[in-house]
């Protein structure tokens, strides 16, 4: 039997699609990565359906691509091989459990940031999750698997650090649970002290199975929160101030962007430029506490560092959130109330891309300086975006491009992104959410035995090579 007939038997004909329009929709994302249509789309609703889909694909040796909303900004759900079936998991959208005592939530893949935020606000107002700048309709579970960053990452780290455990259908069809949830329902309180098998799924871009449930850490919603803006000049002082402030451990979050992005959010029309005398970077720093005094003291810690830096350059300005809103406009409100519609400033054109990386703190400033020169050479808007990660154990940086998808601009974007990646790799930075072209470049720099280990793990789990083949550049079966 053909795969289409098998899938229709599992989920019913109404949840299998192979029309030209559907195939087109799943063939591309907003990035510059080349498109390729899948052969079919299947939309399961239950764990049993996912399991049967994987078993059927093993029989017919059909590639499967887990998909929720395709907003990875890494081309990660664009088929890398012909004949792939997209497994669209949007319909598995239950929030199964919130454990108030152990502070975790158990979600299915289709649960979105908007959905989770509203659910917690309505039913568990003392708890919060952490939210990205991404659209509110993107997947919480896929985001955690991708090891990205949200608005508690300065304090707690990359998103996979929030995972307590998960349930997955292995590429060979067995259902497994990892983390303390492996000991039974209602017990997803940690991924330790068991061997940490979350790593078999996080960062793998859907190559090692389909995750059907995930337990994620929630945090107490602090009664007092405050945001301040910091406008600063020059890469070196900017990075130094961000690093110094992050190391005091007073921050929940830090977002540092180049001024053109600040102007975009304030409503300035594209193309947005930086004029002489304007600050180079704007930071949004977030603190919280149990009392107003605790919050004020944390702000004082930040102010002390900025005042010391002002002795060298008095143009750096620390500005209250209320002052910033007066200066920049009310549209800044959603910036601190994520997830929000803020992503729309980045969706000005049909194209959006970046090479996001994590980097050793000692190279952060240099990469920012040299990266800025590359972006300016290619004539793009300067949209640098940085975050201090996990109390400043490491830094995140990327240059964002919003662009019209005409042939010339796409070619320029590809060249500029490739040059930025080469720069980042030369300083030991590691890209996250790597498209295939970037994964291949990264592999050239990695210890060959690390790549060998990745291949062994992937082949052991997926002997028929059906799960998102071609990702991570691991397709060659030598
Ligand atoms: C404007 C904009 C801003 C953004 N800002 C941020 C940000 O601040 N921080 C951040 O971290 N991200 C950000 N993102 C990226 C994106 O929002 C997240 O990565 C997103 O939450 C992933 O969800 P998705 O539904 O798009 O996943 P998809 O793109 O559908 O899937 C992503 C990857 O995960 C795999 N996958 C999906 N579901 C499963 C599953 N159940 N089991 C196994 N593998 C699976 C897919 O095969 C694919 O490789 C941004 C995106 C946009 C468009």
Features:
Uridine Diphospho-n-acetylenolpyruvylglucosamine Reductase, domain 2, binds flavin-adenine dinucleotide, Vanillyl-alcohol Oxidase, Chain A, domain 3, 33% helix, nine-stranded antiparallel beta sheet, Uridine Diphospho-n-acetylenolpyruvylglucosamine Reductase, domain 3, five-stranded antiparallel beta sheet, globular, 14 helices, alpha+beta, 21% strand, 478 residues
Quaternary organisation of the protein chains: single chain
* Distance N to C terminus: 30 Å
CATH topology of the largest domain: Vanillyl-alcohol Oxidase, Chain A, domain 3
Q: What are the low-pLDDT stretches, counting only 5+ consecutive residues below 50?
A: none
What is the CA-based Rg, rounded?
22 Å
- Identify the bound ligands: flavin-adenine dinucleotide
Number of domain units: 4
Number of strands: 20
Instruction: Name the CATH homologous superfamily of the largest domain.
Output: FAD-linked oxidases, C-terminal domain
Bin the strand percentage. 15-25%
Per the principal axes of the C-alpha atoms, what is the gross shape?
globular
* Average pLDDT: 95
Question: Which architecture of the largest domain per CATH?
Answer: 3-Layer(aba) Sandwich
The biggest sheet amounts to: 9 strands, antiparallel
CATH class of the largest domain: Alpha Beta
């Amino acid at each position: 039997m053909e795969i289409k007939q098998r899938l229709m038997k599992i989920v019913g004909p109404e949840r299998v699609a192979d029309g030209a329009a559907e195939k087109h929709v799943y063939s591309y994302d907003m990035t510059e990565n080349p498109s390729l249509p899948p052969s079919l789309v299947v939309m399961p609703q239950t764990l049993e359906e996912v399991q049967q889909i994987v078993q059927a694909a093993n029989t017919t040796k059909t590639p499967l691509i887990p998909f929720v909303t395709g907003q990875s900004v890494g081309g990660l759900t664009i088929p890398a091989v012909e004949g792939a079936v997209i497994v669209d998991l949007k319909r598995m959208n239950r929030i199964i459990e919130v454990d108030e005592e152990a502070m975790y939530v158990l979600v299915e893949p289709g649960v979105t940031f908007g959905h989770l935020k509203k659910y917690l606000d309505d039913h568990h107002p003392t708890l919060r999750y952490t939210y990205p700048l991404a659209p509110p309709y993107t997947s919480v579970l896929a985001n955690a698997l991708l090891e990205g960053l949200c608005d508690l990452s300065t304090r707690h780290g990359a998103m996979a650090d929030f995972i307590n455990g998960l349930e997955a259908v292995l590429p060979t069809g067995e259902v497994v649970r990892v983390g303390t949830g492996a000991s039974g329902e209602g017990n997803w309180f940690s991924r330790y002290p068991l061997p940490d098998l979350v790593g078999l799924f996080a960062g793998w871009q859907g190559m090692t199975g389909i995750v059907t449930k995930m337990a994620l850490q929630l945090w107490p919603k602090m009664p007092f929160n405050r945001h301040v803006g910091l406008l600063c000049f020059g890469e070196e002082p900017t990075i130094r101030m961000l690093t110094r402030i992050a190391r005091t451990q007073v921050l929940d979050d830090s977002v540092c962007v180049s001024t053109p992005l600040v102007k975009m959010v304030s409503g300035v029309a594209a193309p947005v430029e930086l004029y002489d005398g304007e600050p180079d970077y704007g930071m949004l720093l977030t603190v919280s506490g149990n009392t107003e005094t605790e919050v004020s003291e944390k702000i004082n810690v930040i102010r002390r560092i900025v005042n010391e830096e002002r002795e060298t350059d008095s143009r750096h300005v620390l500005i209250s959130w209320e002052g910033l809103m007066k200066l920049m406009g009310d549209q800044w409100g959603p910036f601190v109330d994520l997830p929000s519609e803020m992503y729309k400033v980045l969706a000005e054109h049909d194209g959006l891309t970046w090479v996001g990386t994590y980097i050793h703190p000692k190279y952060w400033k240099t990469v920012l300086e040299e990266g800025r020169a590359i972006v300016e050479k290619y004539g793009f808007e300067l949209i640098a975006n940085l975050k201090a990660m996990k109390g400043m154990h490491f830094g995140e940086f990327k240059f964002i491009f919003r662009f019209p998808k005409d042939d010339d601009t796409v070619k320029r974007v590809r060249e500029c992104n490739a040059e930025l990646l080469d720069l980042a790799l030369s300083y030991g930075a590691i890209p996250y959410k790597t498209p295939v072209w970037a994964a291949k470049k990264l592999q050239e720099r990695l210890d060959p035995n690390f790549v060998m280990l990745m291949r062994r793990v992937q082949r052991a789990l997926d002997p028929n090579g059906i799960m998102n083949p071609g990702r991570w550049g691991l397709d060659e079966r030598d």
